[in-house]
Specification:
With 205 residues, the chain is mostly helical. It has two domains: 137 residues, no CATH class; 65 residues. It is 68% helix and 0% strand. The chain has ten helices and no strands. Helix 5 packs parallel to helix 7. It is globular, with a radius of gyration of 18 Å. It starts with a helix and ends with a helix.
């Protein structure tokens, strides 16, 4: 197994260990693949933010975000995880999420929008992750993102499968919203109820 892949999971949990946060950051920086390095730094930043260590979380999130600027010149490194461009996109999404968890709305949104083309699944997931991170810092923006993504799903309801084909995405939106805006939560729960009702009709038919 590639050494970078073995090290990546370990750095993700270090942010919650207080003094060991430094070790997590150092371990992330040992990764040779620059995209994986960005993802590891971002994961450590999110863990630090979740532990309430916002100063270190912000510093690590900035380091991860700055690292994405060098990914376009990473050359063959992007081939390590699959198709060219996949690792770069994932790294930008992770850095965007880390920035969101430190409350940096504008930079997080800007980076999330760089992950892929408009309406792509990668970009959607990056924006939902940013919404989850902004939930405590900027609940209005987080709700707005969730609502926009929900409206996109409603537009897809004209397809033969309707919302039943998007139950995973609905679950992701609910998880990102958490205990946020009650009206938005009600709309999402109603949509989930429609999915279950449709499935019940299909199964009973």
């Amino acid at each position: 197994m590639n050494k970078d892949r073995r090290l990546l999971p370990f750095s993700a949990g270090f942010g919650s260990l207080g003094d060991v946060l430094v070790d997590g950051a150092l371990l992330a920086r040992t990764l040779r693949d620059p995209a994986k390095r960005v993802q590891a730094l971002a994961a450590t930043a999110v863990s630090a933010a979740a532990a309430g260590n916002l100063p270190d979380a912000r510093r690590l999130a900035h380091e991860a975000a700055d690292g994405t600027r060098r990914l376009e010149d990473a050359g063959d490194f992007s081939f390590l995880g699959g198709a060219p461009g996949t690792d770069v996109s994932n790294a930008k999404g992770a850095a965007a999420q880390a920035l969101a968890y430190t409350g940096e709305r504008d930079r997080a949104l800007s980076l999330a929008e760089e992950t892929d083309d408009t309406d792509s699944d990668r970009r959607r997931r990056a924006l939902v992750a940013v919404a989850a991170g902004l939930r405590l810092h900027d609940p209005a923006t987080a709700t707005s993102i969730i609502d926009q993504q929900f409206q996109r799903l409603l537009a897809a309801d004209a397809s033969p499968r309707g919302l039943r084909g998007h139950n995973t995405e609905l679950a992701e939106l609910l998880a990102a919203l958490g205990n946020g805006d009650p009206q938005c939560t009600d709309r999402l729960r109603e949509a989930v109820g429609q999915v279950w009702a449709t499935l019940a009709r299909v199964l009973s038919g």
